[in-house]
């Protein structure tokens, strides 16, 4: 057989090259992520393993451009998503991608879900903003998404608030919130 397989020849969706992220402490910058490189092709799952505190979450926040503005910054390397360098993107430009093309699932679903908005609202907001569908269509899709992850009584859960859910249900709802559209999801 000649030629590359489809997977081998596909361009990466995410490319991280020599990434360095630092935090400013007492006026000095210290690296929390030091020279990390990897790439993810479409349809592939990549796991990043390392001891607690080694920089997995900070690396993910760097990719999502969610580092704390007051003391965190990328000090080296580059991040490309779908061939586009994320470094020079404005907040407005990245907001169009975040939640639509890439999303981050944070470690604690109970604290990541907004306690003052219903589950349905939090899923529908993403769908409505990025897919330009009506609120009614977004609601129907939100219910279908909840059902697809095995949530029982999804029609009721959409109107409930995070504190009313079990830990497992909250986690599944949160995953749907982050995961309903993106090409790239970072579980952190
Ligand atoms: N806002 C911040 N300011 C200063 N240092 C920070 C900040 N956030 C994270 N750090 C530091 O960056 C380093 C990497 O932390 P990070 O949360 O990425 O670890 P992790 O690999 O995700 O750990 P875990 O497996 O426990 O989730 C740690 O030393 C942490 O204290
Ligand atoms: Mg972490």
UniProtKB/TrEMBL annotation:
GO terms, molecular function: ATP binding; ATP hydrolysis activity
Gene3D superfamilies (UniProt xref): P-loop containing nucleotide triphosphate hydrolases
GO CC term, one of those recorded: membrane
Domain ABC transporter, residue spans: 34-169
Location in or out of the cell: Membrane
The keyword Amino-acid biosynthesis appears for this protein: no
UniProt-listed Pfam families: ABC_tran (PF00005)
Keywords associated with the record: Cell inner membrane, Cell membrane, Membrane, Translocase, Transport
InterPro entries xref list: ABC_Ni/Peptide_Import, ABC_transporter-like_ATP-bd, P-loop_NTPase
Record bears the keyword Transferase: no
Stated family: Belongs to the ABC transporter superfamily.
Protein name: ABC transporter family protein
